[in-house]
Amino acid sequence: MTHRRPVLHFRAGSRLIAVALALGFTSLLVAVAGASPIETFRLLWDGSLGTGDKFANTVMTWVPLVLASAGLVITFSAGLWNIGVEGQIVMGAIAASWVAREVDLGTAGIITLAILAGLAGGLLWGLLAGALRVYGRVNEIFGGLGLDFVATGLVVYLVIGPWKRAGIASTSGTDPFPREAWLPTIGNKLAPIAVILAVLAVVGVYALMRGTYFGLRLKAVGANATSAFIIGIRTHRYLLAAMAIGGALAGVAGTVQVIGFQHKLVPAISGGYGFLGILVVLLAAYRAAFIAPIAFFFVMISVGSSQLSLRLGLDSSIGGVIQGTLVLVAVLVGGWQAQRARHGAVAVED
Amino acid sequence: MEATIATIVATAAPLVYATVGETIAEKAGVINLSLDGSILLSAMTGFATTYVTGSVMLGFLAAMLVSMVIAALIAFASIELKLNQIAIGFVLTLLAAELSSFLGRPYVGVRGTSVPHWRVPLLSDIPFLGKVLFDHNLSVYGSFLALIAAYVFIFRTKRGLELQGIGERPEAAFARGIPVNRMRYLYTVIGGALVGIAGAAYSLDVKFGWRENLTLNFGWIALAIVIFGGWHPVRAAFGCYLFGALQVLALKLQPVSAFQGVSQILPILPFVLMIFTLVIVYLDWFRRFGERHPRWRRLLSSEPPAGIGRVFERE
Amino acid sequence: MSLELRDIRKRFGAVRANDGVSLQVEEGALHGLLGENGAGKSTLMKVLSGFIEADAGQVILNGRHLEMSSPRDAITAGIGMLHQDPLVFLPFSVLDNFVLGSPNANRVEAGAELRRIGAGFGFSFDLTAPARSLTVGERQQLEIVRLLWLGAKVLILDEPTTGISATQQALLFETLRTLAAQGMIVIFVSHKLEEVEALCDRVTVMRRGKAVGDVELPAPMDQLVEMMFGRPLEVTGRKPGGPGEIALELTDVCVDDRLVSLEDLSMSVRHGEIIGLAGLEGSGQRTLLRTCAGLIEPKSGSVRAAGVDLTSRGYHHHLSSRIHYLPAGRLEEGLIRGVTITEHFLLAGEQTGPIIDWAEARRRADEMLREHSIVGTTESTAESLSGGNQQRLLLALMPDDVAVLLMEHPTRGLDLASADWVWNRLLARVAGETAIVFSSADLDELLRYSDRIVVFFGGRVFKVLDARSTDSERLAHLIGGRDVA
Fold it and tell me: Which ranges of chain A would DSSP assign to H, the alpha helix?
């Protein structure tokens, strides 16, 4: 498995075809489940963008997804399947929660520390998976999966054990953090700091991959580690660095989840944004420039779909179905176009 | 003791199906990474079909069909479109899981039929072994059959040798007149059928019923066990029973008062332990240990088929 | 029995590998197919064996048109091909390899047949040994017997002498003569004139995808050379210069590298010196090169370069001591698929700050392309280049001040013009004090360019020779483990 990074060729057309096919498939499913497809999509739109509050809610969901996706662009570039991203988000959340619960330095101090702690938590967890891969030759898919399980175990343990709510142990989460540890908001929900973090991550990853030696070497290591090593790149360092950066960004995503959105630690703190981020990056064909809009589209679907269960009695997993179908179709259509391009090269010449 | 071991054997049965199925596909060179989602969707489909039709048989068939379609899709994407098997498998695993939640909603919490129990006459009277092996539901016997059949097929038949050849060096198999890609479709889909049985075995036998994420993470464990098993069905089955034992242990510890505070994380522990057993098998020093001690080598060696994950294209 | 290929056409992308090739072979004849690397011989033979489908053309055996859509059709028609790298399954046993794909299911019978047919040619097999443990020559023998057992009446051999010893080659040639005498059609594909001359009764010469001549042998050498290359042959020779200081020195080095272990190896390479490594594939040449490069850590002994101890310092430390390594797999262990030429130069060159100046990088890459006459643009990816251009790019990526250059098969698979160009470049570097250690399966190449030749056999150094007082016959025997001098 040398060339692990799938080469996907996307064109504007393939994305449109993918969206059309995915919407068609979902409409069919919705109709089978006894609801009106048009009503469904209208509710998805309303549920995510309908009011200022809903929009703020969507943006605050977008932030962790973008952060995790930006990190995944780095790990994918290095040819790594960072399945451990879920665990990295969780460890970031745990570290940030610790700061939010234990440190008392005023809002600015707590938030700065919490972000740094979350970053470090995710970074270390990513580095651990990276070290298993580099020094132990443990495939990062399974090493990462194991670390995901460990992180999940740890967060459940904390929530029902040492950090349980006063009086009762319940899996509904810890007590809310003190107000000073909440990210300051405009209006009810929108936290500008979170948005700034997300934008910085996207711009940073884009610049890193586009214009630096580091990014180029990362890409070389991902495309062919043996050749990269022979050319003179210290491949181990770059693999570890990729896991560290990917983990750090995931850790920040976890931080935003706890201090910007939930304001407490809950067992399902990752929100599935890690795996969802993998879908985002696959759809973006591993390019940082596309992740922000794609992630926003995905979040609209996720947030909007919770409306559907209330209003139409559909299961909220319809959002996941739409996202999964979209990526599946896009990848298949992209593969089909690349296949035609390979054969087309001959035909054109004749 | 007998009862405990019998429980382990029963608990591990679905995993045996899944690992045997995945082993067959990977032996042919195709990685079906969609296992976790496939099993979920098959479990849901199997239960729903049985609930609606009242037939356990139809439930199993429907479950098989679902996972076969997913497997065929992976084979198609890999063989015809030259797409990365890991990528397509990962997308499918998430999609199938979401679909199982979406489509399975009406069946959450309802009671359905389950696989009939059958004490094998005479054999079940053997002391110890009788209770452990021959006093089970039918799907458990099926897992024995699948395991033995896969072993015999892969290592004792002409077609099985061809299967190994396809995964090891597809060009060489092709030069010998074997239609490599057609066979890859076939074995990936057969593997998918077994994965489907695994799903149905969970919802119709081990867990009796359907709820969201009923079998979450079992597919990942199955994938890990295939590697742990060094692409050998019998060794993989050993991994399944080990995992079953861990699960039963966790279950037994739950009521123990010393673990009261942490009883909710006990179900996660087998996954953690199993994955890290695998990590140890992976580790370099462990491999070198195997190389240094020839007697252990056969037992520990775990070379994947050389052509695994690689697209075969005749120039 | 007669075989005819009529107007075969096959193209890969823009390359016309076979551009209307016709070929006629009669039974009982040893027919040679001669041409440079890249002339289209292998493509033609893969079409004949059903391994690839032609775009157009016909295959006619005994007056009957054959429908060739897969190797199965070829096998059924009695056409069998021995590929250049014998297509055996390395971890499987000899017997498993023998029966795999055959319609006969009885393993005991099959094993007996393998032994019986093999014994007729002087081959012997250990049925339970894994194919991995066989030499290339033994793998060929296994494949030949298997094809005969399957009923092959037409036997194609694609460059079968690459990587086998003189003894095995003699046995192979004898086998082929016997088979031809029994009335089989034998097609012997080679880029080596001498071999075709020594073995074949008739030869078809291919050049650039076309059959350019068909002559009875023996024929005048000049005529064949002219047909093969379209011009008289000129190859750059080597004027040995006086070697300088010691560039790299191994002292009592012991290495364990899976099947190969080198023991108590001491040797030194001087600036301006070329050392050739000879031996069958996997006899230890690669192990030595990789030890010199710092990729394999010696168990004991020392590796020193220009007086500095490099033992156990690792590959990148060797690189900074200006010791460079160029493995055989150009796209596997040298260049990177999907990465452009400009990016390759950036990766291999000196880093100037953390930010890349793309305009400057493209300008410099373009300069290098012209200087090394590489056909491609700055934005071409590595895999889009031809083999010759890939090798040129690899050489262009090396800095000028390389002290020791370790190379595996510097010209494998290249046509003569590219090979000659590569050696011109290498010799220029040697004149500029670089020391070269290279391995090759081409005895002429070893003899033509080396000062000294180190012969490996069975995972150890068998002999060290002065290249100027050795001939190819002696060398061929030595790599088979026989010292006849």
Answer: 12-32, 37-49, 52-77, 85-102, 106-136, 140-160, 192-211, 213-223, 225-231, 235-256, 273-283, 288-311, 318-349
pLDDT at residue A31 above 80?
yes
Question: Using CB atoms within 10 A of its CB, is residue C434 exposed (0-12), middle (13-18) or buried (19+)?
Answer: buried
Which residue from B minimizes the CA distance to A320? B98
Q: Which residue of C has its CA nearest to B178?
A: C101
The CATH number for A184's domain is: 1.10.3470
The number of folded domains in chain B is: 1
DSSP A262: I
Tell me, yes or no, whether B254 lies in a domain.
yes
> Would you tell me how many other CB atoms lie within 10 Å of the CB of residue C328?
18
Q: Which secondary-structure segment (H or E) carries C261?
A: strand C260-270
What tens digit of pLDDT does each residue of A64-119 get? 999 999 999 999 999 999 999 999 999 999 999 999 999 988 999 999 999 999 99
Interface contact flag, C89 B158, Cβ < 8 Å? no
Angle between helices A52-77 and A213-223 (to 10 degrees): 70
Structure tokens belonging to residue A117? 């702690």
Tell me if B135 sits within 8 A of B6, measured CB to CB. Answer: yes
Distance between CA C169 and CA C138 in Å, rounded? 11
Cα distance between residue B44 and residue B195, in whole Å: 13
Burial tier of C13 (Cβ tally within 10 Å: 0-12, 13-18, 19+): exposed
CA distance A215 to B108: 48
Determine which of A161-170, C344-353, C438-447 has the lowest per-residue pLDDT on average. Answer: A161-170
CA distance C137 to C160: 8
- What's residue B211's pLDDT? 92
What is the residue-averaged pLDDT of chain C?
91
Domains and CATH numbers, chain C: 2-229 (3.40.50.300), 235-322+399-485 (3.40.50.300), 337-398 (no CATH)
Number of C-beta neighbours around residue C235 at 10 A: 11
User: Is A27 part of a structural domain of the chain?
Assistant: no
- As to burial, measured by CB atoms within 10 angstroms (0-12 exposed, 13-18 middle, 19+ buried), residue C377 is middle
SS3 string, A43-106, reads: HHHHHHHCCHHHHHHHHHHHHHHHHHHHHHHHHHHCCCCCCCHHHHHHHHHHHHHHHHHHCCCH
Query: Which residues of B make CB contacts under 8 Å with A?
Result: 77, 80-84, 86-88, 90-92, 94-95, 97-99, 101-103, 105, 212, 217, 220, 223-224, 227, 261-262, 264-265, 268-269, 271-272, 275-276, 278-279, 282-284, 287, 308-309
At residue C256, the 3 state secondary structure works out as strand
Nearest Cα of chain A lies from the Cα of B9 at a distance, in angstroms, of: 24
Q: How far is C392 from chain A (nearest CA, A)?
A: 15
The predicted pLDDT at position A188 comes to 82
| Parallel, antiparallel or unpaired: strands C435-439 and C274-278 | parallel
Within-domain flag for A229: yes
Q: Which residue in this structure is represented by tokens 């504007």?
A: A12
At C199, is the pLDDT very low, low, confident or very high (cuts 50, 70, 90)? very high
The interface predicted TM-score (ipTM) is 0.91
Give the span between the Cα atoms of B169 and B305, in whole angstroms: 8
Assess B155–C contact: CB distance below 8 Å, yes or no. no
Per-residue pLDDT band for C484 (boundaries 50, 70, 90) equals low
Spatial CA neighbour of C264 closest among C288, C290, C300: C300
**How many Cβ atoms from other residues are within 10 Å of residue B159's Cβ?**
13
H helices of B176-268, in order, are: 180-201, 218-228, 233-253
pTM: 0.93
Q: Which of B265, B283, B308 sits opposite A138 (nearest CB)?
A: B283
Q: Provide the domain count of chain A.
A: 1
